[in-house]
Amino acid sequence: MKRPPPLFLLRFLFLWPLLVVPALSQSPPQPKGFLVNCGSTDDLFTPDGLRWLADSSFVSAGSPRKLSLPGLLPVLSTLRSFPVRPGLPQPRKFCYVLRAGRGARYLIRTTYFYGSFDSPGGSGTPPVFDQIVDGTFWTTVNTTADYAAGVASYYEGVFRAKGMTMSVCVAENTYTTSDLFISALEMILLEDSVYNGTNFDEYAMGLIARSTFGSIGSSLRYPDDRFNRYWQPFSGSAHAMTSTHNISSSDFWNLPPAMIFNTALVADKAKPLVFQWPPNLLPSSSYYIALYFADTLPGSTRTFNVYVNDYSFQADLTVTSAGLVVFATQWFLSGLTTITLTPGSPLPPLISAGEVFGLFSIGNVTHTRDIIALEKIKKNIANPPSDWSGDPCMPEQYSWTGITCSNGSKIRVVALNLSSMSLSGSLSPVIARMTALTYMTNSRSKQIKESSEIAFTEQSVNRSHSSITGKSESAT
Ligand SMILES: *[C@@H]1O[C@H](CO)[C@@H](O)[C@H](O)[C@H]1NC(C)=O
Ligand SMILES: *[C@@H]1O[C@H](CO)[C@@H](O)[C@H](O)[C@H]1NC(C)=O
Ligand SMILES: *[C@@H]1O[C@H](CO)[C@@H](O)[C@H](O)[C@H]1NC(C)=O
Ligand SMILES: *[C@@H]1O[C@H](CO)[C@@H](O)[C@H](O)[C@H]1NC(C)=O
Ligand SMILES: *[C@@H]1O[C@H](CO)[C@@H](O)[C@H](O)[C@H]1NC(C)=O
Ligand SMILES: *[C@@H]1O[C@H](CO)[C@@H](O)[C@H](O)[C@H]1NC(C)=O
Ligand SMILES: *[C@@H]1O[C@H](CO)[C@@H](O)[C@H](O)[C@H]1NC(C)=O
């Protein structure tokens, strides 16, 4: 299988607001899911009312690190690093594994602030590496430019949980020359209606931009956004307008925070509104686009046409102060994107907010039967290799150390090399369930030939000759 193109090399600048957001009395509850403060040994409560968890119960690989830079936000001041060992035959991935509801949809955000953690003089260069979710390549992480600008980087995506857990991994790639790291990981449960136009059985979405138009200052997030989505100010060159609105955002499937309707970009009278958004150059692909509108004047109505790159996105859109959203689940974009609103009524067109995500295909995952067996084997290994978490086989080339997998539609484990791993306990019933396994090595059997504890007294078990039963290929 060809490695998917690194679609979303995009970085998102952000500085967390230094101002303390007063916890509002009617704050929504803490978002459901996990906010993990990587590298921290204690839970952390931030002024916005969020609780960040210590990370040791979600990850076994890597080492916690502390940065001591003055003024650094607490969430960014710890990180977990993972050792890179050049010369290994294949790249490795290191995963956080989080409990999930099967079939549920999650916002996943990873945050990186390098802080020269591996070069005490502060002279280091951030590593470049990949991110993987459940065996699917997501993006390449390159925080170099952000770090030079003194800010952290974040990446956000929307994924559906295929099983009872989800894994989020950092992984070596050909550019990786120093230790990998991660500062924070969030996995937040989204309500069913949010982004529900997308078929998450086939696709995941990677955020390109989420903007509140006509707004300046700090970004909107929890508690204004109940899922802690970040809405970044975008003022562009057009006219910004503010108002105080009373919109009930529960009318919108994507449940945007009502505050996004308090600002807008507004055209000059009788003129079209034209602006470039998102600001990044985009690779040719399909994108999800949602645009949010509300008339800033109470009781008023205006009609206009919406174009994206000269293609009609929505004709004769009538916007009232009640607000509305229009979205496209798969819209082709390439290079720079221009949004154009042309007037169709005396009042000039306006726009409140927008979101654009790139769509990418979900990769295949290892057969459940083999995953279950490997988890049992892992329990019988005193010190399993540090990359034994996440999907055992996928993405291709990122299989666990000692494991060889089949290619194609059904991903099965075809060979196991457990030599140099200290096994204990009997594994035969477990191995018997790995019905695609044809080859296995276990050097320890040489050392303790007499031990009946070890199921494998041959150095190699070739299933074509062995008596291990259970060849049936029935799916579990
Ligand atoms: C990472 O980003 C920096 C700054 O934008 C760029 O110079 C460098 O080529 C990038 N590295 C890779 C491997 O893409
Ligand atoms: C999305 O959710 C809304 C609100 O629950 C519902 O009315 C709509 O039919 C859903 N759309 C799809 C494609 O499932
Ligand atoms: C918003 O509308 C609700 C219900 O219509 C009303 O109770 C509330 O006072 C309004 N708030 C403002 C700020 O106008
Ligand atoms: C899977 O494909 C890759 C490259 O296409 C190849 O190197 C590898 O040997 C294949 N694995 C098996 C088990 O066939
Ligand atoms: C998963 O397997 C199916 C069936 O062979 C194949 O059509 C599809 O391309 C695979 N998906 C990926 C992302 O490789
Ligand atoms: C099994 O792994 C060990 C190192 O862990 C290596 O020396 C050996 O060559 C491997 N055996 C096979 C058959 O791949
Ligand atoms: C397993 O047995 C088959 C059938 O005799 C043979 O073709 C294959 O080479 C053997 N594989 C290994 C790894 O010994």
TrEMBL record:
Q: Which residue positions does the secretion signal occupy?
A: 1-25
One term under GO cellular component: membrane
- Molecular-function GO terms, alphabetical: kinase activity
Going by the UniProt record, its keywords in alphabetical order are: Kinase, Leucine-rich repeat, Receptor, Repeat, Signal, Transferase
Tell me where in or outside the cell this protein is found: Membrane
- Ranges for domain Leucine-rich repeat-containing N-terminal plant-type: 369-406
* Annotated Polar residues bias: 457-476
| Keyword Signal found | yes
Domain Malectin-like as annotated: residue spans: 36-357
This protein's superkingdom?
Eukaryota
Q: Where is this region: Disordered?
A: 456-476
Return the Pfam families for the record: LRRNT_2 (PF08263), Malectin_like (PF12819)
Coiled-coil stretches are: none
Q: Which InterPro entries match?
A: LRR_dom_sf (IPR032675), LRR_N_plant-typ (IPR013210), Malectin-like_Carb-bd_dom (IPR024788)
Q: How does it sit in the membrane?
A: Single-pass membrane protein
Annotated protein name in UniProt: Receptor-like serine threonine-protein kinase
